[in-house]
Design goal:
There is one protein chain. The protein is built from 20 helices and 18 strands. It is of the alpha+beta class and about 575 residues long. Among the domains are: about 130 residues, no CATH class; about 240 residues, Amidase signature (AS) domain (Amidase signature (AS) enzymes). The radius of gyration is 22 Å and the shape is globular.
């Protein structure tokens, strides 16, 4: 199958979906926190009637009632593979020319680290010695930012830093990421590290290897400063404002970048979690079709919706991280990843269409502060030569429920029933309902709806070549921590806000399309960042990176500052360790 001038494997047939009016409503799902959460989670886990009540109240039965579903077969895996000549790309030529930060109020970039290492003003070992006391949770007292980190292997980190320092001393660094600290989400396999998926359980399944995408960063000399915690264990506050969450389950990675601890981090997206921290933490985030398969098929509990992607404080670092991690794996390691082409920048003379697709009724559901930022972004892109096209997509509310249903079923399938009682309270609720309330008919209907939507999206990409679906990243201006320290200690089960928060990001995830989120503004006195998101055609990661570059002037981004913010000037502090 082809899309424009590109060819693909498994590209969905371009078929316009049924014309149905957009109808949505805010779901009525009670929120639980603190002691009530612990009690209710235990009851829901033990009592089928309680599970059934919450299941019915969430309205998942609407999926099976869609009349056109019997015309579609199920689409169980959204992976679409671009077909190109897989010419090797030299590592030295592959990354973009990264820029250092323009002024002192911006995040450091990998280029700032690289330049200081080359000049001898700083060493990777000094940076590591500065970071370890800040991120370690295995010491007393725990590090100031240990809430964002699950684990840091001190001996491994120091050994990597010493090796990188020696390479710079010899004038032979591996490239622009050599010695640069990075963070990796708990969900991703890293040799020697735990893999808990935000629980107290072991999800390594006997494997102690490193996912392919992470290995590419390590082979480029990057130093993993630790694995980041996942939101479900109460991962804490947003560096821009400690009264707000970072976002989804990749919140630990979002925190690490936004707080200045690392310039690049890896997230994993089972439901929009890569992009939500970018919205809430003022970062760039890329969900890539390469990323899903560049790890390992067993990487995620939700293989048909789980994907990987980098997040960074600069678009240059995002592009650099993506192009390294998305290199195809050897066929012996990952047969699917091996079929993807090598990522490479668009040529200077590349002509691309500039079109924004907007579903007006969908966008109208965003809250006023978000809508104001989004409308300003649309105006900005118009001035950059973009055409705005109003489009329609059928069954968006039902599609979001199908997405959630699929995630719940696949997560539940990856957990032994005897272990459900050991999960944190919010996960106990989610897994119990997913394990005992979702029927085969529900799951089949959800996959038929996925196929309907993928074919309609394919139709839009054929009718308007080069179009990106443009939305806010989240319809709400940040997720406030209403329950304070009790909420952070015991967790939160708030399905209503979770569904609301993912109202836009789920589509790219469920369709297997790449998407990029960009900082676009701030909300109110809390100074909480607001993001916008563009979803592109399958295989259009490089076009999305250029789309983000077009929007770099959307907002004057600055590091977190103010009474409720957190920021570490790591490179300045590391100068005190340089004699080590």
């Amino acid at each position: 199958m082809s899309s424009g001038t590109k060819s693909f494997l498994n590209y969905p047939a371009p078929l316009k979906g049924p014309e149905v009016p957009y109808e949505n409503e805010t779901q009525s799902i009670p929120a639980f926190r603190g002691a009530p959460l612990i009690i209710s989670a235990t009851l829901i886990h033990k009592i089928g009637l309680a599970q059934s009540y919450f299941w019915r109240n969430a309205g998942f039965d609407v999926i099976r009632k869609i009349p056109e579903l019997n015309q579609y077969s199920g689409r169980y895996d959204p992976t679409v593979i671009p077909v190109e000549d897989n010419v090797p790309v030299e590592r030295e030529l592959q990354p973009p020319s990264c820029r250092k930060r323009a002024h002192r109020d911006q995040h450091y970039t990998s280029a700032d680290y690289h330049a200081l290492y080359l000049s001898g003003e700083l060493t990777p070992l000094a940076v590591v010695e500065c970071l370890l006391p800040l991120v370690r949770r295995d010491v007393s007292p725990a590090g100031k930012h240990s809430t964002a980190f699950l684990e840091s292997k001190v001996d491994v980190i120091r050994a990597a830093a010493e090796a990188s320092t020696e390479r710079y001393k010899m004038g032979k660094p591996l490239g622009p990421l050599d010695g640069v600290p990075i963070a990796v989400k708990d969900e991703v396999h890293v040799a020697g590290y735990k893999r808990t998926l935000g629980t107290k359980l072991d999800f390594k399944h006997g494997s102690d290897g490193t996912s392919w995408c992470v290995q590419q960063w390590q082979d480029a000399g990057a130093i993993i400063i630790g694995k980041t915690t996942m939101h479900e264990l109460g991962l804490g506050q947003n560096p821009h404002n400690q009264n707000y969450y970072c976002g989804g389950s990749s919140g630990g990675s979002g925190y690490a970048v936004s707080a200045g601890l690392v310039p690049i981090a890896l997230g994993a997206d089972g439901g929009g979690s890569i992009r939500i921290p970018s919205s809430f933490c003022g970062l760039w985030g890329l969900k890539t079709t390469h990323g899903r398969v560049s790890g390992a098929p067993s990487l995620s509990l939700a293989p048909t919706v789980g994907v990987l992607g980098p997040m960074a404080g600069s678009i240059d670092d995002l592009a650099l991280a993506y192009r390294l991690m998305a290199a195809p794996a050897p066929v012996s390691q990952d047969a699917i990843s091996s079929q993807f082409p090598n990522p490479k920048p668009l040529p200077d003379n590349h002509k691309r269409a500039k079109r924004l697709g907007i579903v007006r009724e969908w966008i109208d559901r965003a809250e006023a502060p978000v809508r104001a930022v989004f409308d300003a972004a649309v105006d900005y892109y118009r001035k950059q030569g973009y055409e705005v096209i109003e489009i329609s997509i059928p069954y968006l509310p039902e599609g979001q429920r199908a997405h959630v249903l699929t995630i719940m079923a696949e997560i539940a399938a990856g957990v032994d029933p005897s272990h459900v009682g050991s999960l944190s309270a919010p996960n106990k609720v989610l897994v119990s309902i997913g394990m005992w309330q979702i029927t085969a008919n529900d799951l089949l209907a959800a996959q038929r709806l996925r196929n309907l939507l993928m074919q309609h999206i394919s139709h839009l990409f054929h009718e308007y070549p080069g179009i990106v679906l443009f939305t806010p990243t989240s319809p709400i201006p940040g997720w406030r921590i209403e329950g304070g320290e009790t909420e952070l200690a015991y967790g939160l089960s708030d399905g209503k806000t979770s569904v609301r928060n993912m109202e836009y990001v789920w589509l790219a995830n469920f369709m297997g399309c790449p998407a990029i989120t960009c900082p676009a503004g701030y909300a109110g006195e809390g100074n909480v960042p607001i993001g916008v998101m563009a979803m592109g055609d399958w295989g259009s990661e490089e076009e999305l990176i250029e789309f983000a570059r077009d929007g770099e002037g959307l907002v004057d981004r600055v590091i977190p500052a103010g009474h409720h913010s957190v920021w570490e000037d790591v490179l300045q502090q590391a100068r005190g360790y340089n004699g080590l």
